[in-house]
Amino acid sequence: MFHFDWVPVLFSADTDSLWPQLFSPVLAVCFLSALLVWLQLPILGNASSSEVGIVGVLVSFATVFRTQQSYSRFWEGRSKLGMMMAGIVDAASITGVLLESGPCQDDRWRREQKAEVARLLRLYMREAAAFLRSASVTTAKRTEYWRNGDEVERDLSEILGSTLVKQTEHTEASATEARKLDAMAPRTRAPAVLQWLRRALQTAATDEKHGGALIAGSDASARMLLLSQETTSALGTLQREFNACCKIATTPLPVQYVRISRLLRFVFVFSCPLLLANKLGWSCVLFCGLLAFGYHAIDAVGLALSNPFVGKLGEATLDGRFVAAVCTDVDALLTEAEAFPQVQLVAQHRGLNGRELQQQQKAAKEKKQNEGMVDEEDETVLQRAMQHVLRGA
Question: In angstroms, rounded to a whole number, what is the distance separating the alpha carbons of residues 383 and 386?
Fold first, then answer.
């Protein structure tokens, strides 16, 4: 079968943000080439391909090296961010198991402690993401020195949307915690939340109610030892990977190198029409246009990847996806959120939570057994309710 998979796709959602940066320089080079050919001006004579190639190698090396370093920053940022997210989920899993291991019979207290740990883990992720976003915006302003800072921030706000919130907005923090966070430097807010989390876990390990503790152990010392052995690695990972992300978010590419590479690219691209107009004729317009497109496109990609947490390209942009994913995982491990989306759908439709649905299902099954009724299709009440919802009732 004949297909068009080999045809390059120039316009897509991932590359639309790059075209405005490429249109102006490419159009300017094409216009200059056409003007020189039309006027037939022997500006700089007929240059040989070797002469142009020598300069082109130098410019190509500077451009590609910068793009390579930008990709290294992007890949490291995405890796460290993923490890920090994995550490949060790991901490939620470990603490969930520990808080269920004790002999305490007070289920309400157990739920409250698990909900508090979940809240602090979510708050940690939100504060960490907020700082990485704000620091990356500041770094982007320094990297794009040729643009107005307000213009750079406005462009990034279109990418990040509502997630680029003010530093004074601390979602899920209590009023007292919010005042403490406001008094801190932005970089120390996430470590402060981590400290609160450690304190909450220590309280859960030492306190006892109704003749037992939430964590298994003969006494407070044994419980603290177990808590330390199980959570030290996971909580240590959070701070270590957060520091690695901060290094990338707060450190721009060397501005001097960016200046030199931009100057070399500009001189080379706009001098090619002067060197090749008489030699190539009207084909100089196409050749110089492709040359300008290649150099400026590679430079634009490198610029977008140099700040991975607010970049226009890549999968490390902190636009709310990662925070939502972590919060969902933490809630699934520590709170009584439903395990399956279908259960949530039925619960929302019927105004019940998952436990009430299970109780209703169990009561209906017991009623059937008492009345001697047999369900030949082995279809539960919950499954029929799900089908009822999916039919649009």
Answer: 5
